[in-house]
Amino acid sequence: MGQIKVTPTPIKGLYVIEPTVHGDSRGYFTETYNQRDMAEAGLNMRFVQDNQSMSVKGVLRGLHFQKEFPQGKLVRVIRGRVFDVAVDLRRRSETYGKWYGVELSEENKKQFYISEGFAHGFLVLSDTAEFCYKVTDFYHPGDEGGLAWNDPAIGIEWPELVGDYKGSAKAEGYTLADGTPLLLSEKDQLWRGLQDTFAF
């Protein structure tokens, strides 16, 4: 091994991965994924699809999860920076409802592996951000669920975000510290909290 550094987080199933970067005056080279190195680190997932998105500053995507066809995700940022978050939705987990976040950027080149069974979201902190991720299952239309990004029961501490919770996931009244308005899709403003979403 030696090409990657894998750091387990306090929540089982979440890993921060740092690849080796070879740089000189011309630029740099890095392996963004190596199945053998991952396997040697105990990560034996199989990816079936690559996705990429671009978002502008203040965009928050999430919190999303898959209901019947859960996906593991290996996420990274190739331009800009984001704060990336995963929330444990595994009912029998000791950390159910807990969250972990990490800043991903083109500078730090960190990756975040999120196992199946988590909700996922990210907040764009740079002018723009290009976000890439591998997934362990194909996209299934109609299978997406979601949670309110600002649910007090989860209590995510989004960096640089200013505003007060008013009982819903609506973006109104929230900005980044520099005044950039928070931008969410219509759908992401309608998600409910953890207890309402998974009430029995």
Can you summarize this structure?
With 200 residues, this protein is mainly β. It has helices at 35-40, 194-197, and strands spanning 4-8, 14-19, 21-24, 27-30, 49-56, 60-66, 73-79, 81-88, 99-105, 111-114, 118-124, 128-135, 144-146, 161-162, 175-176. The strands form four sheets. It has a six-stranded antiparallel sheet, with no helix packed on it.
Show the helix and strand layout.
Blueprint: E1 4-8, E2 14-19, E3 21-24, E4 27-30, H1 35-40, E5 49-56, E6 60-66, E7 73-79, E8 81-88, E9 99-105, E10 111-114, E11 118-124, E12 128-135, E13 144-146, E14 161-162, E15 175-176, H2 194-197
Antiparallel strand pairs: 1-2, 2-10, 3-4, 5-12, 6-11, 6-13, 7-10, 7-12, 8-9, 8-11, 14-15
Could you tell me how far the N terminus lies from the C terminus, measured between alpha carbons in angstroms?
45 Å
Total DSSP helices: 2
Portion of residues in helices? under 10%
Radius of gyration: 17 Å
Sequence of strands across the biggest β-sheet: 1-2-10-7-12-5
Query: Number of DSSP strands?
Result: 15
Mean pLDDT: 95
Classify the secondary structure makeup into a structural class.
mainly beta
β content, as a range? 35-45%
Global geometry: globular
Stretches with pLDDT under 50, minimum 5 residues: none
Largest sheet: 6 strands, antiparallel
Q: What is the helix/strand order?
A: EEEEHEEEEEEEEEEEH
